[in-house]
Amino acid sequence: MTEPTRYQTEPLELPLPAPAQADPVPVEGCLGCAELASVRARARAVGDMTTVSDCNVHLRRHPEGHQ
User: Fold this and answer.
1) pLDDT tens digit string along 3-45?
2) Which residues have C-beta within 8 Å of that of residue 2, sequence separation ≥ 6?
3) What's the start-to-end Cα distance of the chain, in Å?
């Protein structure tokens, strides 16, 4: 049986988010993108980062106006 560690280990440093995880840019001329960007801006202004994240996911995934 091994002895347990009796000292504090060094902290683990996680990498910063990759640039690919930055906010997506709305497609010009797409009303869906414009609305999502507007909701995202209002949510960020009040500190609602859950809604900011949701809007980013929808901006990345919604198909209309991009093809």
Assistant:
1) 777 777 788 888 876 665 678 889 888 888 999 999 999 999 9
2) none
3) 63
CB 32 within 8 A of CB 65: yes
Residue 26 CA to residue 42 CA, distance in Å, equals 15
CA distances in angstroms from 4 to 7, 16, 51, listed in the order given: 9, 32, 44
Backbone angles phi, psi at 58, to 5 degrees: -65, -40
Q: Report CA-CA distances (Å) from 54 to 3, 15, 34, 63.
A: 47, 23, 15, 16
Q: pLDDT per residue over 50-60, tens digit each?
A: 999 999 999 98
Tokens for 22, please give them. Answer: 């930055």
